[in-house]
Design brief:
heterotetramer, A: about 260 residues, alpha/beta, seven-stranded antiparallel beta sheet, seven-stranded mixed beta sheet, 7 helices, about 25% helix, B: about 300 residues, four-stranded antiparallel beta sheet, 8 helices, 18 strands, binds flavin-adenine dinucleotide, binds flavin mononucleotide, binds FE2/S2 (inorganic) cluster
C-alpha cells in the first residue's frame, strides 16, 4: 500500500489565470515529498458539511520547499467555494492518492493534454526532465481558447519542453482537436504517449497511439466520494469485461489498452 | 481523580470492545485501505464491506452522488464474496489487534444461513452484523428489514448457524422501527445496529435523468443524524439488548449524543470519507470526555439523557 | 419562438394555478408577514399555518433547532383557530389576487369533519390541504397518516363536507407511502401533497437534554430533499391524481427536479426562512426555463424524467 | 406592517475588538434608512446550507451613508463563520425586524447594557442625542472583563454620553453586576430604563426599576429560525399567562412589566 497523509496546508498563493481557472499553492511538505506525477489529492472545500465530500484534483506541481499546487476550473459548488479561498487560510488535503504515470519511458515522449487534463502533465514533464538521462519530450496541449491555454503553455515552455498547441476556436495553434496533432506522425518515432483530458480526447488519442503501435497511458476521471478506495463508488468496467476496476485505487492512470472505452 | 487511561470498555453480546467506536460497513473498505491514516488497533472494532456468498460486481456507474450535507450511494453491494474474503481480506487483520465484525447480506434466507454457517468459528471473525436492508427477491424485492416476520426469520436462521456475537442492522424505512427491533430481539439477536441508509433519489435537471444509474440509492451523512438519533432513542427504550448507533456521526459530540440516547456503541460511516481520521479522533475525544468529567467509565454516559 | 409570457398554469382538482409554486404550511405565517418581501399575487398559491377548530397555544420552548442542512421544529401547531382565522387572517387576502389553500389539522375524525364543513363555501378559501400527520388521540396518538384506513377515513370525512379542491398531505414516516397514497386517492382526494417533515431529534451533550422541549420534532430543509424526491417519484407513478412536491425545495433547479419526478406543483417551506424571496424567485426561474427551452408550457416538464 | 428589506451589502470593515468579539460594517442603505434602535437584522452566515438558518443580530449602528454595523461574540457555528468574513464579500441581510425601543422617553434615561446586549444601546444613545431636545442620558455598561468592555465604553463616550461601568472581574469600574449600579438610586429621578443583556441581568434590572417606580423596557433573546414572524418558533409566555407572544414580531423590546419572568 502506497503511503498517504492527511495534511492541512497554509494557502500561500491564489492565482486567477482566467475568469474561471484558478491555481492554489499550499504548504504541504509531507504530501509534496510523497507525490508522483499522475497522482491526485482529495481536497476538503469547506469547513462545514455543505459541500460535504472532498473533491479530487491531480497534483499540478510540487516544489522542493514542500509546496503543492492544484489547478482547477470552476464547474460546480465545490470548485466555486475553492475559488473564493483566501490566502492564509488552511487547505485540508489527503494524498498523494492513486497510481500515477510510469516514470521510466526510455523512449521519446508525447505529453498530450486537454483543458484541465494538462494539470498533471506539468508535474510529469518536470519529473522526466530531472532524470539523469532525460528523454526527448514534446507536449501537445489543447484547450477551448488561447486565453485558457496560454498560461499553461508558458509554464511548460519554461521547463524547456517544446509545445505544440491546438484550440477549439483556432485562437492559438492548430484550429481543432489536440488529437489531430498525432494523426500524421511517423510510426517509427515509437513515442510513449501520456494523455490526460476529456474522455472523448483520450479515447481518440489512445486509438491513434494504438494505430501507430505506440504505448499510451491515460488518466481517467470518475465521480469520487472518498478517493481512498473505501467506498467503491469510482468503478470503471474492466477491459476484459470481468467486473470493475476502481479509478482511485487501480488508477487514475491506466495503460490505454486496459480501458474498455465506452 | 482523572484516570490516566479512562475505562472505555463496552460489551456487545459476548464481545468486549476496548471502546465504543467502530467503523460502518461499506465506508472503510476492507480496513487495509485506511491503515496508513488510522491506527486500527485503537478502534473498538471494524466492520467491513458487506459480504455475500458469491462475489457481486455491483451496480452500473454512477454509483454515488452528493446531496445537501449527505450523499446517496447505490454501490450494489459489490464485494469479493465470502471465500475470497476469508482467504484474501481477513488475513490482513492477523497483524492487527482489532475485532473484525463481518457484515453479511443476501437475497434469500438460504444465503444468510450459509453465510452464518461459513463464518462460524473462523479465526479472526469477532462477530457478524446482518444487513437486513437487502431486497428479498422471493418476496418481490421487499427488503427483509421492512417486515417484522422476515426480519425475525433472517435473524433466527443466522443465529442457529453462528455461535459468536450476532448484531442485526435495522433499516429506517419502516413505519415503527420498535416493532422490527423487538421481533429481531426475540429471534435471538445479541445487539441491534441502526440506522442503515434512508432511501432517496437525485435528478439532474439538465439531462432530465436520475443521477444514479440505479435511480434510487441510500442516503447517509450528517443530513440523516436527527432521524437516526430519534430511532436509536426509541429502540433503546423498546429492547433490552445493546443498541449500536449509526447515522451522520462525524465527531465526539455526535457520538456522545448517541450514547446519551441509549446507544452502547457507535459506528462512523460517511465521515470516514470527509475526515479519514474521524474514528480515531472520536476515540480520543470520548476518552478526554471521561477524564474531564471524572466519570467512572464511558458507560456512565450510556442512556444518560435527562428527559 | 420564446413566449413573452410563458404558459405556467397547472391544474389541481378544479383549481387552476397561474404557476406551480406555492408556499408550504407553517413556513409563511398567515401570508401578511411576507407581503413586504414577496409579491404574493405572483405566486401560484399560498398555504398558511395549519388551522384547528379551537385556537392552540403550541408547545413549550425551545420549539426549533438547527441541524445539518436542516432544522427540527416542534411548534405544536400553534394557531388562532378556524373562527379567528376566517375573521382576522383571511380578510387580508381580499386585496391580494392569490389562491389561499387552508391547511387543516385535528386530533379526531370529528374535528376534521367540522373544519371541512366550516370552511365549505367560505369566500377566499380556494381549497383545503388536510394535514394527516397529526396524532389521533383516540388511537393512542398514532398519526392518521401512518395508517391507510385512518388516512382514508379522514379524507372521506372532509370530502363529504367540503366541495372545493381537496389536497391531502402525506406523512413520510411510513414503510410504503404508495399504499397510503392509493387509499387516500380512493377516498376522494383531488390531489396529494408530500412530504411533511421526517420525525427527528436533537440532543445537547453539554446539558444532556433534548434540544426541543417536545423531545422529538419534524425535520425539514435541504437535508430531506432526496427522500422527498424519491417519495414523490414513487407516488406520482402509483396514483392518477396530481401530486404536489414538498421537501427541501430552495431554488429553481430543485423545483424542476420535483416536476420531472412527476409533481404537478411544488411547495416551498423552510427555504422561506433562509431566503424570504425564494418562492417568487422560483416562479421567475421556471418561467425563464420554459422560455429558454422553447417549451409549450411548464407542463412539458411534469413527469419528464428519462428513466 | 413595518417595512422590511432583503439586501446584500458589501463588507467594508471587519474589526476584531477582542479574541472573540467582532464588528462588521456593511453597506446596506435601504436597511440603514428604515432601522430604528432596538430592531434587528437576520444575517445569512454562509452561502451554502450549513449553517442553514439566518442568525439574529441587533443593529449596532447605522451611518448617514447607509452603513449597517453588527457587533457579535463568537459563541457557535454561525458566529464563527461570520468572524471569518473577508472585506469585499457580500453580507446577506433581512431587516430591520421587530419592534425597537420607544424613542420619546421625555425623562432622563438609563441605558443598561450587559455584554453583547450593549450593541443596540449605542444606536439608541446616538438616536436620543440627535433629538431636538435631547434628554439627559447615562449609560450603565457591564461585561466580564475590562478588555471586553472598554471598546464599547469608548464608543459610548465618543457620543458624549456619561458611562458608568461594572465588570465581573473588577478590572474596570464597579466589581460586580451592572444591576448594582441602579440599586441605590433616588426614586425621584424618575428615569426611563432601557435594558439589554443576559436574561438574569434584565430580570434583576426590571425588578429594581419596578421598585423605584421607573418605566423599563427590555430586549429579549430567544432562538429564532426565521425572524420574520413566519415560523412561530420564538414564542415567549405572555405576562397574563394567556398563550405566547412572539419575540421577533411583538418584540424583541417589551415593557418590562409585560414579561412573565421565569
Ligand atoms: C482523479 C481526478 C483528478 C482530477 N483533477 C482535476 C484537476 O486537476 N483540475 C480540475 O479542474 N478538475 C480535476 N478533476 C475534476 C474535479 O474533481 C471536478 O471538477 C470537481 O470535483 C467538481 O466539483 P464541484 O463541486 O465543483 O462540482 P459539482 O458538480 O458541484 O460536484 C458534485 C459532486 O460531483 C463530483 N464531481 C463533479 N464533477 C466531477 C468530475 N469531473 N470528476 C470527478 N468528480 C466530479 C464532485 O467531486 C462532487 O462530489 C479531477 C477528477 C478526478 C477524478
Ligand atoms: C433579537 C436578537 C438580537 C441579538 N443580537 C445580538 C448581538 O447584537 N450580538 C451578539 O453577539 N448576539 C446577538 N444575539 C444572539 C445571537 O443571535 C446568537 O449569539 C447567534 O445566533 C448564535 O449563533 P451561532 O451559530 O454562533 O450559535 P449556534 O449555537 O451554532 O447556533 C445554532 C442555532 O441556535 C441559534 N442561537 C444560538 N444562540 C442563540 C441566542 N442566544 N439567541 C438566539 N438564537 C441563538 C442560532 O441562531 C442558530 O439558529 C441576538 C439574538 C436575538 C434573538
Ligand atoms: C458508500 C457506502 C457503502 C455502504 N455499504 C454498506 C454495506 O455494504 N452494508 C451495510 O449494511 N451498510 C452499508 N452502508 C451504510 C452504512 O454502513 C451506514 O449504515 C450509513 O451510511 C449511515 O451511517 P453514516 O451516515 O455514518 O454513513 C454503506 C454506506 C455508504 C455511504
Ligand atoms: C416551522 C415549521 C412549521 C410547520 N407547520 C406545519 C403545519 O402547521 N402544517 C403542516 O401540514 N406542515 C407544517 N410544516 C411542514 C412543512 O409544510 C413542509 O411539509 C416541511 O417543512 C417540508 O418542506 P421544507 O423542507 O420545504 O420545509 C411546518 C414546517 C416548519 C419548518
Ligand atoms: S472514490 Fe471511493 S473507492 Fe474510489
Ligand atoms: S423567529 Fe420565526 S416567528 Fe419569530
Amino acid at each position: 500500500m502506497q503511503e498517504t497523509a492527511q495534511e492541512k496546508g497554509k494557502i500561500i498563493r491564489v492565482e486567477q489565470l482566467t475568469p474561471d481557472i484558478f491555481r492554489i499553492t499550499a504548504v504541504a511538505p509531507r504530501i509534496a515529498g510523497l507525490s508522483r506525477p499522475g497522482q491526485f489529492v482529495m481536497v476538503r472545500v469547506s469547513g462545514g458539511y455543505d459541500p460535504l465530500l472532498r473533491r479530487p484534483f491531480s497534483i499540478h506541481q510540487v516544489t522542493a520547499n514542500g509546496h503543492v499546487q492544484i489547478l482547477f476550473k470552476v464547474v460546480g459548488k465545490g470548485t466555486a467555494v475553492l475559488a473564493g479561498a483566501c490566502v492564509g487560510k488552511m487547505l485540508d488535503l489527503v494524498g498523494p492518492l492513486g497510481r500515477g504515470f510510469s516514470l521510466k519511458p526510455r523512449r521519446p515522449v508525447f505529453l498530450v493534454g486537454g483543458g484541465m487534463g494538462i494539470a498533471p502533465l506539468l508535474f510529469l514533464g518536470k519529473w522526466l526532465l530531472q532524470d539523469a538521462d532525460p528523454v526527448e519530450t514534446v507536449a501537445l496541449l489543447g484547450a477551448r481558447t488561447r486565453e485558457e491555454l496560454l498560461p499553461l503553455v508558458t509554464d511548460m515552455e519554461a521547463l524547456g519542453i517544446e509545445v505544440r498547441t491546438a484550440t477549439d476556436d483556432g485562437s492559438l495553434g492548430h484550429h481543432g482537436l489536440v488529437g489531430d496533432l498525432i494523426r500524421d506522425q511517423d510510426p517509427g518515432l515509437g513515442r510513449q504517449v501520456y494523455a490526460c483530458g476529456p474522455y472523448p480526447m483520450m479515447r481518440a488519442v489512445s486509438g491513434q497511439a494504438k494505430a501507430l503501435g505506440w504505448p499510451c497511458e491515460v488518466s481517467l476521471e470518475t465521480m469520487m466520494a472518498c478517493g481512498l478506495s473505501a467506498c467503491l463508488g469510482c468503478a470503471f468496467p474492466r477491459g476484459d469485461g470481468a467486473g470493475h476496476v476502481h479509478v482511485c485505487k487501480d488508477g487514475p492512470v491506466f495503460p490505454a489498452e486496459e480501458v474498455a472505452w465506452l | 481523580m482523572a484516570l490516566e487511561h479512562p475505562d472505555m470498555r463496552v460489551k456487545i453480546g459476548g464481545l468486549t470492545l476496548i471502546n465504543p467506536v467502530m467503523t460502518a460497513s461499506g465506508t472503510f473498505g476492507y480496513g487495509e485501505e485506511f491503515s496508513s491514516l488510522v491506527n486500527l488497533h485503537r478502534l473498538g472494532g471494524v466492520i467491513l464491506k458487506g459480504i455475500s456468498l458469491e462475489p457481486r460486481p455491483g451496480n452500473a456507474m454512477p454509483r454515488v452522488v452528493e446531496t445537501s450535507c449527505g450523499m446517496l450511494n447505490a454501490i450494489g453491494l459489490e464485494n469479493v464474496g465470502v471465500e475470497r474474503f476469508i482467504t484474501e481480506k481477513l488475513p490482513f487483520f492477523r497483524g492487527v489487534q482489532v475485532p473484525v465484525i463481518v457484515n453479511i447480506l443476501g437475497d434469500s434466507l438460504e444465503e444468510y444461513r450459509l453465510l452464518g454457517r461459513r463464518l462460524n468459528g473462523i479465526e479472526g471473525v469477532a462477530g457478524i452484523e446482518v444487513n437486513i436492508s437487502c431486497p428479498n427477491v422471493k418476496k418481490g424485492g421487499v427488503a427483509f428489514g421492512t417486515d417484522p416476520e422476515m426480519a425475525a426469520a433472517v435473524t433466527s436462521v443466522v443465529r442457529r448457524e453462528f455461535s459468536g456475537p450476532l448484531m442485526v442492522k435495522l433499516s429506517p424505512t419502516v413505519t415503527d422501527i420498535t416493532v422490527v427491533a423487538r421481533a429481531v430481539e426475540d429471534a435471538g439477536a445479541d445487539a441491534l445496529s441502526l440506522i442503515n441508509t434512508l432511501l432517496g433519489m437525485a435528478i439532474d435537471s439538465k439531462t432530465r435523468r436520475p443521477r444514479l444509474a440505479n435511480i434510487v440509492g441510500g442516503l447517509s451523512g450528517p443530513a440523516i443524524k436527527p432521524v437516526a438519533l430519534r430511532m436509536v432513542w426509541q429502540v433503546a427504550r423498546a429492547v433490552k439488548i445493546p443498541v449500536i448507533g449509526i447515522g451522520g456521526i462525524a465527531n465526539t459530540t455526535d457520538a456522545l449524543e448517541f450514547l446519551l440516547a441509549g446507544a452502547t456503541a457507535v459506528q462512523v460511516g460517511t465521515a470516514n470519507f470527509v475526515n479519514p481520521r474521524a474514528s480515531e479522533e472520536i476515540v480520543n475525544g470520548l476518552a478526554a470526555y471521561v477524564r474531564d468529567h471524572d466519570l467512572e467509565s464511558i458507560r456512565d454516559v450510556i442512556n444518560g439523557l435527562i428527559v
